[in-house]
Amino acid sequence: MQKFMPDIAHSAEALQEGTLDWVGMSQIELPLVVSSKDSPEQHVSALAEAFVNLNDPQAKGIHMSRLYLALDEFSNHQTLTPKTLASVLDQFISSHHSLSDQAQVTLKFDYHLRRRSLLSGKTGWKAYPVEITATYKEQTVVLELSVAVTYSSTCPCSAALARQLIQQAFDQQFTEQAIEKDQVMQWLGSTQGIVATPHSQRSIAQVKVKLNQLDSHFDILSLIDALENELKTPVQAAVKREDEQEFARLNGQNLMFCEDAARKVKHILNQQSDYSDFWLRINHYESLHAHDAVSIAVKGVAMGYTA
Ligand SMILES: Nc1nc2c(ncn2[C@@H]2O[C@H](COP(=O)(O)OP(=O)(O)OP(=O)(O)O)[C@@H](O)[C@H]2O)c(=O)[nH]1
Protein backbone atom coordinates (compact mmCIF):
# COMPACT_ATOMS: atom_id res chain seq x y z
CA MET A 1 0.00 0.00 0.00
CA GLN A 2 1.53 3.34 -1.03
CA LYS A 3 2.27 5.45 2.04
CA PHE A 4 0.58 8.83 2.29
CA MET A 5 2.75 11.68 1.12
CA PRO A 6 1.78 15.36 1.26
CA ASP A 7 1.17 16.81 -2.20
CA ILE A 8 1.85 20.52 -2.03
CA ALA A 9 0.98 20.93 -5.70
CA HIS A 10 -2.57 19.88 -4.75
CA SER A 11 -2.98 20.93 -1.14
CA ALA A 12 -1.18 24.23 -0.74
CA GLU A 13 -2.59 27.53 -1.85
CA ALA A 14 -0.68 29.86 -4.14
CA LEU A 15 1.17 32.46 -2.06
CA GLN A 16 0.05 35.02 -4.59
CA GLU A 17 -2.71 34.35 -7.12
CA GLY A 18 -1.82 34.77 -10.78
CA THR A 19 -1.45 33.03 -14.11
CA LEU A 20 1.99 32.36 -15.55
CA ASP A 21 3.07 32.36 -19.21
CA TRP A 22 5.53 29.47 -18.89
CA VAL A 23 6.48 27.14 -16.03
CA GLY A 24 8.76 24.14 -16.43
CA MET A 25 12.36 22.99 -16.45
CA SER A 26 15.56 23.78 -18.34
CA GLN A 27 18.92 22.06 -18.84
CA ILE A 28 17.30 18.62 -18.96
CA GLU A 29 19.93 16.18 -20.25
CA LEU A 30 18.34 14.18 -23.05
CA PRO A 31 20.06 11.69 -25.38
CA LEU A 32 18.13 11.69 -28.66
CA VAL A 33 18.13 10.06 -32.08
CA VAL A 34 17.70 12.78 -34.69
CA SER A 35 16.08 11.85 -37.99
CA SER A 36 16.96 14.57 -40.54
CA LYS A 37 16.06 14.41 -44.22
CA ASP A 38 18.83 12.98 -46.47
CA SER A 39 21.02 12.22 -43.46
CA PRO A 40 21.50 9.00 -41.49
CA GLU A 41 19.86 8.92 -38.06
CA GLN A 42 22.22 10.47 -35.54
CA HIS A 43 22.55 10.06 -31.76
CA VAL A 44 22.95 13.43 -30.06
CA SER A 45 23.25 14.68 -26.49
CA ALA A 46 20.59 17.35 -26.20
CA LEU A 47 19.70 19.81 -23.48
CA ALA A 48 15.96 20.27 -23.28
CA GLU A 49 13.59 22.87 -21.92
CA ALA A 50 10.00 21.85 -21.15
CA PHE A 51 7.21 24.32 -20.39
CA VAL A 52 3.47 24.62 -19.98
CA ASN A 53 1.54 27.74 -19.12
CA LEU A 54 -0.26 27.98 -15.77
CA ASN A 55 -3.77 29.19 -16.45
CA ASP A 56 -5.25 28.60 -13.01
CA PRO A 57 -4.38 31.65 -10.89
CA GLN A 58 -5.00 29.73 -7.67
CA ALA A 59 -3.13 26.51 -8.47
CA LYS A 60 0.05 26.07 -6.40
CA GLY A 61 2.08 24.65 -9.26
CA ILE A 62 2.36 22.41 -12.30
CA HIS A 63 3.40 18.73 -12.26
CA MET A 64 7.01 18.82 -13.32
CA SER A 65 7.57 15.09 -13.12
CA ARG A 66 4.92 14.60 -15.80
CA LEU A 67 6.77 16.83 -18.25
CA TYR A 68 10.04 15.14 -17.43
CA LEU A 69 8.61 11.63 -17.83
CA ALA A 70 7.04 12.54 -21.20
CA LEU A 71 10.46 13.68 -22.43
CA ASP A 72 12.14 10.59 -20.99
CA GLU A 73 9.65 8.34 -22.80
CA PHE A 74 10.29 10.28 -26.00
CA SER A 75 14.07 9.96 -25.59
CA ASN A 76 13.90 6.19 -25.00
CA HIS A 77 11.34 5.17 -27.62
CA GLN A 78 11.10 7.80 -30.40
CA THR A 79 13.35 9.43 -32.96
CA LEU A 80 13.12 13.20 -33.21
CA THR A 81 10.76 14.19 -36.01
CA PRO A 82 8.18 16.98 -36.24
CA LYS A 83 5.38 14.51 -35.51
CA THR A 84 7.03 12.84 -32.51
CA LEU A 85 7.87 16.24 -31.06
CA ALA A 86 4.27 17.40 -31.51
CA SER A 87 3.13 14.29 -29.64
CA VAL A 88 5.31 15.28 -26.68
CA LEU A 89 3.43 18.58 -26.54
CA ASP A 90 0.15 16.63 -26.56
CA GLN A 91 1.34 14.72 -23.51
CA PHE A 92 2.38 17.93 -21.76
CA ILE A 93 -1.13 19.35 -22.26
CA SER A 94 -3.04 16.16 -21.47
CA SER A 95 -1.06 15.71 -18.22
CA HIS A 96 -2.00 19.27 -17.19
CA HIS A 97 -5.54 19.34 -18.54
CA SER A 98 -6.99 21.63 -15.87
CA LEU A 99 -3.91 23.84 -15.53
CA SER A 100 -2.53 24.47 -19.02
CA ASP A 101 -3.55 24.96 -22.64
CA GLN A 102 -0.11 25.89 -24.03
CA ALA A 103 3.12 23.87 -24.14
CA GLN A 104 6.64 24.29 -25.46
CA VAL A 105 9.72 22.11 -25.78
CA THR A 106 13.18 23.26 -26.92
CA LEU A 107 16.04 20.91 -27.81
CA LYS A 108 19.63 22.13 -28.19
CA PHE A 109 22.35 19.86 -29.56
CA ASP A 110 25.41 19.70 -31.81
CA TYR A 111 24.63 18.10 -35.17
CA HIS A 112 27.64 16.47 -36.80
CA LEU A 113 28.04 16.35 -40.58
CA ARG A 114 30.77 14.84 -42.76
CA ARG A 115 32.01 17.72 -44.91
CA ARG A 116 34.11 17.32 -48.04
CA SER A 117 37.24 19.42 -48.57
CA LEU A 118 37.28 21.97 -51.40
CA LEU A 119 39.51 20.13 -53.89
CA SER A 120 41.40 17.19 -52.37
CA GLY A 121 38.37 14.98 -51.83
CA LYS A 122 39.15 14.47 -48.15
CA THR A 123 36.31 14.55 -45.61
CA GLY A 124 36.06 15.50 -41.97
CA TRP A 125 33.50 16.12 -39.23
CA LYS A 126 31.95 19.46 -38.49
CA ALA A 127 29.60 20.12 -35.56
CA TYR A 128 26.71 22.56 -36.12
CA PRO A 129 24.84 23.99 -33.10
CA VAL A 130 21.15 23.22 -33.70
CA GLU A 131 18.08 24.26 -31.73
CA ILE A 132 14.57 22.96 -32.38
CA THR A 133 11.54 24.48 -30.67
CA ALA A 134 7.98 23.20 -30.84
CA THR A 135 5.21 25.36 -29.38
CA TYR A 136 1.54 24.42 -28.97
CA LYS A 137 -0.80 27.42 -28.74
CA GLU A 138 -4.42 27.88 -29.83
CA GLN A 139 -4.63 24.29 -31.12
CA THR A 140 -1.64 24.89 -33.44
CA VAL A 141 1.92 23.53 -33.34
CA VAL A 142 4.65 25.91 -34.50
CA LEU A 143 8.06 24.42 -35.30
CA GLU A 144 11.27 26.48 -35.37
CA LEU A 145 14.70 25.33 -36.46
CA SER A 146 17.85 27.29 -35.61
CA VAL A 147 21.37 26.62 -36.86
CA ALA A 148 24.70 28.42 -36.64
CA VAL A 149 27.13 28.31 -39.57
CA THR A 150 30.76 29.37 -39.14
CA TYR A 151 32.56 30.94 -42.07
CA SER A 152 35.45 33.24 -42.97
CA SER A 153 34.81 36.89 -43.86
CA THR A 154 37.43 39.11 -45.51
CA CYS A 155 36.86 42.85 -45.33
CA PRO A 156 36.37 44.56 -48.74
CA CYS A 157 37.57 47.92 -47.42
CA SER A 158 40.74 46.41 -45.98
CA ALA A 159 41.31 44.59 -49.29
CA ALA A 160 41.11 47.88 -51.23
CA LEU A 161 43.57 49.49 -48.83
CA ALA A 162 45.94 46.52 -49.17
CA ARG A 163 45.73 46.67 -52.97
CA GLN A 164 46.74 50.34 -52.85
CA LEU A 165 49.84 49.48 -50.79
CA ILE A 166 50.74 46.71 -53.24
CA GLN A 167 50.40 49.17 -56.12
CA GLN A 168 52.70 51.64 -54.31
CA ALA A 169 55.25 48.89 -53.64
CA PHE A 170 55.10 47.87 -57.30
CA ASP A 171 55.62 51.48 -58.37
CA GLN A 172 58.67 51.79 -56.09
CA GLN A 173 60.10 48.49 -57.24
CA PHE A 174 59.66 48.97 -60.99
CA THR A 175 60.64 52.54 -61.91
CA GLU A 176 61.26 51.81 -65.62
CA GLN A 177 58.34 52.07 -68.02
CA ALA A 178 59.38 48.88 -69.87
CA ILE A 179 59.22 45.95 -67.45
CA GLU A 180 60.23 42.33 -68.02
CA LYS A 181 57.30 40.00 -67.32
CA ASP A 182 59.60 37.50 -65.58
CA GLN A 183 60.76 40.22 -63.19
CA VAL A 184 57.15 41.02 -62.32
CA MET A 185 56.26 37.35 -61.90
CA GLN A 186 59.22 36.91 -59.57
CA TRP A 187 58.20 39.98 -57.57
CA LEU A 188 54.58 38.87 -57.35
CA GLY A 189 55.80 35.54 -55.97
CA SER A 190 57.74 37.24 -53.21
CA THR A 191 56.41 38.53 -49.89
CA GLN A 192 56.77 42.01 -51.43
CA GLY A 193 54.13 41.06 -53.97
CA ILE A 194 51.67 40.85 -51.10
CA VAL A 195 53.10 43.68 -49.01
CA ALA A 196 49.74 44.10 -47.27
CA THR A 197 46.87 41.69 -46.53
CA PRO A 198 43.23 42.54 -45.71
CA HIS A 199 41.90 41.57 -42.30
CA SER A 200 39.68 38.50 -42.23
CA GLN A 201 38.01 36.73 -39.35
CA ARG A 202 36.01 33.76 -38.25
CA SER A 203 32.31 34.70 -38.46
CA ILE A 204 29.03 33.07 -37.46
CA ALA A 205 25.66 33.26 -39.20
CA GLN A 206 22.86 32.51 -36.72
CA VAL A 207 19.61 31.64 -38.44
CA LYS A 208 16.17 30.72 -37.09
CA VAL A 209 13.40 29.61 -39.46
CA LYS A 210 9.73 28.90 -38.85
CA LEU A 211 8.79 25.68 -40.66
CA ASN A 212 5.76 25.74 -42.89
CA GLN A 213 4.37 22.35 -41.97
CA LEU A 214 4.77 19.17 -39.97
CA ASP A 215 7.00 17.34 -42.48
CA SER A 216 7.97 13.73 -41.88
CA HIS A 217 11.53 14.83 -41.03
CA PHE A 218 13.38 17.95 -40.02
CA ASP A 219 15.60 19.08 -42.87
CA ILE A 220 18.69 20.32 -41.05
CA LEU A 221 21.08 19.51 -43.90
CA SER A 222 19.26 21.62 -46.49
CA LEU A 223 19.35 24.73 -44.30
CA ILE A 224 23.06 24.32 -43.54
CA ASP A 225 23.91 23.62 -47.19
CA ALA A 226 21.88 26.62 -48.41
CA LEU A 227 23.72 28.94 -46.01
CA GLU A 228 27.21 27.58 -46.71
CA ASN A 229 26.69 27.57 -50.48
CA GLU A 230 25.53 31.19 -50.37
CA LEU A 231 28.30 32.44 -48.05
CA LYS A 232 30.97 30.53 -50.10
CA THR A 233 33.62 30.52 -47.34
CA PRO A 234 32.52 28.09 -44.60
CA VAL A 235 35.32 27.02 -42.29
CA GLN A 236 36.82 23.77 -43.45
CA ALA A 237 37.33 20.36 -41.86
CA ALA A 238 40.05 18.38 -43.71
CA VAL A 239 42.49 20.78 -45.47
CA LYS A 240 45.39 19.89 -47.82
CA ARG A 241 47.46 22.68 -49.45
CA GLU A 242 45.32 22.58 -52.59
CA ASP A 243 42.25 23.11 -50.37
CA GLU A 244 43.91 25.98 -48.56
CA GLN A 245 44.77 27.67 -51.86
CA GLU A 246 41.17 27.29 -53.03
CA PHE A 247 39.97 28.69 -49.71
CA ALA A 248 42.25 31.71 -50.25
CA ARG A 249 40.75 32.18 -53.73
CA LEU A 250 37.19 31.95 -52.40
CA ASN A 251 37.96 34.54 -49.72
CA GLY A 252 39.53 36.84 -52.29
CA GLN A 253 36.51 36.48 -54.57
CA ASN A 254 33.89 36.84 -51.84
CA LEU A 255 34.89 39.89 -49.82
CA MET A 256 32.11 40.63 -47.30
CA PHE A 257 31.07 43.34 -44.92
CA CYS A 258 28.63 42.06 -42.32
CA GLU A 259 25.95 43.82 -44.39
CA ASP A 260 26.94 41.77 -47.45
CA ALA A 261 26.73 38.51 -45.53
CA ALA A 262 23.34 39.46 -44.04
CA ARG A 263 21.91 40.35 -47.44
CA LYS A 264 23.19 37.09 -48.94
CA VAL A 265 21.61 35.04 -46.14
CA LYS A 266 18.36 37.02 -46.31
CA HIS A 267 18.25 36.50 -50.08
CA ILE A 268 18.74 32.74 -49.90
CA LEU A 269 16.20 32.33 -47.10
CA ASN A 270 13.64 34.27 -49.11
CA GLN A 271 14.12 31.73 -51.89
CA GLN A 272 13.17 28.80 -49.63
CA SER A 273 9.48 27.81 -49.71
CA ASP A 274 9.78 25.66 -46.56
CA TYR A 275 10.10 28.64 -44.22
CA SER A 276 7.15 30.89 -43.37
CA ASP A 277 9.43 33.28 -41.47
CA PHE A 278 13.10 33.76 -40.55
CA TRP A 279 15.41 35.71 -38.29
CA LEU A 280 19.15 36.08 -38.87
CA ARG A 281 22.10 37.56 -37.06
CA ILE A 282 25.52 37.92 -38.69
CA ASN A 283 28.51 38.14 -36.35
CA HIS A 284 31.95 39.07 -37.75
CA TYR A 285 34.44 38.61 -34.89
CA GLU A 286 36.68 41.29 -36.34
CA SER A 287 40.46 40.82 -36.28
CA LEU A 288 40.84 44.58 -36.91
CA HIS A 289 39.41 45.61 -33.52
CA ALA A 290 38.22 44.06 -30.26
CA HIS A 291 34.49 44.43 -31.03
CA ASP A 292 32.36 42.58 -33.55
CA ALA A 293 30.54 43.72 -36.67
CA VAL A 294 26.89 42.61 -36.51
CA SER A 295 23.89 42.64 -38.86
CA ILE A 296 20.36 41.47 -38.01
CA ALA A 297 17.38 40.94 -40.33
CA VAL A 298 13.98 39.22 -40.44
CA LYS A 299 11.68 38.19 -43.32
CA GLY A 300 9.28 40.97 -42.38
CA VAL A 301 5.96 39.11 -42.38
CA ALA A 302 2.94 40.31 -40.36
CA MET A 303 2.93 38.93 -36.81
CA GLY A 304 6.37 37.45 -37.57
CA TYR A 305 9.80 37.66 -36.01
CA THR A 306 11.06 41.09 -35.11
CA ALA A 307 14.68 42.19 -35.39
N1 LIG B 1 5.43 22.95 -9.68
C1 LIG B 1 6.67 22.89 -9.09
N2 LIG B 1 7.14 21.70 -8.61
C2 LIG B 1 8.39 21.70 -8.08
C3 LIG B 1 9.20 22.86 -8.01
N3 LIG B 1 10.40 22.53 -7.45
C4 LIG B 1 10.36 21.24 -7.17
N4 LIG B 1 9.16 20.73 -7.53
C5 LIG B 1 8.79 19.33 -7.32
O1 LIG B 1 8.45 18.66 -8.48
C6 LIG B 1 8.03 17.37 -8.03
C7 LIG B 1 7.19 16.79 -9.07
O2 LIG B 1 5.89 17.36 -8.96
P1 LIG B 1 4.73 16.42 -9.42
O3 LIG B 1 4.97 16.13 -10.89
O4 LIG B 1 3.43 17.00 -9.08
O5 LIG B 1 5.06 15.08 -8.59
P2 LIG B 1 4.01 14.05 -8.02
O6 LIG B 1 2.99 14.77 -7.24
O7 LIG B 1 4.81 12.99 -7.34
O8 LIG B 1 3.39 13.44 -9.35
P3 LIG B 1 1.81 13.42 -9.65
O9 LIG B 1 1.21 12.41 -8.73
O10 LIG B 1 1.78 12.99 -11.10
O11 LIG B 1 1.29 14.82 -9.45
C8 LIG B 1 7.33 17.62 -6.70
O12 LIG B 1 8.01 16.88 -5.71
C9 LIG B 1 7.54 19.12 -6.53
O13 LIG B 1 7.74 19.47 -5.18
C10 LIG B 1 8.67 24.08 -8.51
O14 LIG B 1 9.28 25.15 -8.47
N5 LIG B 1 7.40 24.05 -9.02
TrEMBL record:
Pathway: Cofactor biosynthesis; 7,8-dihydroneopterin triphosphate biosynthesis; 7,8-dihydroneopterin triphosphate from GTP: step 1/1. The record marks C155 as: May be catalytically important. It is an enzyme of class 3 (hydrolase). GO terms for molecular function: GTP cyclohydrolase I activity. Its EC number is 3.5.4.16. GO terms for biological process: tetrahydrofolate biosynthetic process. Keywords: Hydrolase. InterPro entries: GTP_cyclohydrolase_FolE2, GTP_cyclohydrolase_FolE2/MptA. It catalyses: GTP + H2O = 7,8-dihydroneopterin 3'-triphosphate + formate + H(+). HAMAP family: GTP_cyclohydrol_B (MF_01527_B). Converts GTP to 7,8-dihydroneopterin triphosphate. PANTHER family: GTP CYCLOHYDROLASE MPTA (PTHR36445). Belongs to the GTP cyclohydrolase IV family. This is GTP cyclohydrolase FolE2. It comes from Pseudoalteromonas ulvae. The gene is folE2.
